[in-house]
Amino acid sequence: MLLNSKKFPEVSYNKGEEIWVGEGELGLPFNFDVTEDLTASTQAMELVSTFLDDIDALKENTIKYLKALLLKKTEQSATDSEEHILCYFLEFHRDEFDIETLKNLLGTQDVVNITLERMTDFLLIKRFGSYIDKKLNEQAFIMDLSFNSEYTDELLVIYFNKNKEIFNISHES
Predict the structure, then answer these.
(1) What is the pTM assigned to this prediction?
(2) What is the pLDDT of residue 71?
(3) Which domain holds residue 127?
(4) Short-list 164, 119, 169, CA closest to 144
């Protein structure tokens, strides 16, 4: 079956089987996956198609959300807060690399005194997918963001509910 996506019309799947499409395949600029329990449901796959077709707006809204988090950052020490996770991810990349590597990592020459807010503009989608979230007990979506993968394997993982609202952020490598 073909996924009913206007943006990525060549993505196909078999009901009841996991979807895995690698970056660069079928016109997708990121890895894409959907769990087998969702591919059996026409309704779930329609939602997947909608999210894929809106991927640019979803990323743009995510960057706005991340910038808002950085603006409201406080001196709290809670290691599980979204602000802490985001700051740690960005500071790690800004502070651990020399200037030349940072330029290559972000794909820009303007890195001297770069702010964390500005760094969010250079995040790239590395993976997008859908699964059943056990806590929500419903379909959810996951977007892995990062920088140039030749220089880092660190991921900022964003979790969305069916209404395209972010409900969790994590940092993985």
Answers:
(1) 0.92
(2) 85
(3) 54-172
(4) 169
